[in-house]
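Protein modeling request. Please complete all fields; requests missing the sequence field cannot be processed.
Requester role: graduate student
Desired output: 3D structure, token encoding
Chains: 1
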Amino acid sequence: MMKKVFVCVSMQYTAERTISFARACCSHVRERGMIPIASQYLFHDETRNVPQIADIDTGHEYLVDIRICRELMMICDEVWVFMDRDPDDLMIMVLSMADELEMKVHIFRKGEACSMCMA
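Delivered output (119 residues):
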């Protein structure tokens, strides 16, 4: 069975760059024979540079729907965080949830192990 990796990337200056960065990081995971799961890539509002989805139960929009993020993490084996700057709020939330779920976490900083995604 293939490992599933929850992918979290640092927000870039534009929505297009964030999605491109997430796509490259997901490719990095796939090239290593694992399945990438990236909520930032799946639920990104291209009109603004924030991951945003509607909460179906209440009709409110959140920057990140924590329940969906947590559910996706729960089906994964590991968390891979790709950052090219200090951790943002989303990364801090993901790292906190990974700790609660006792998941293995790999952090890739700019220039480390994944120069392709950090271009």
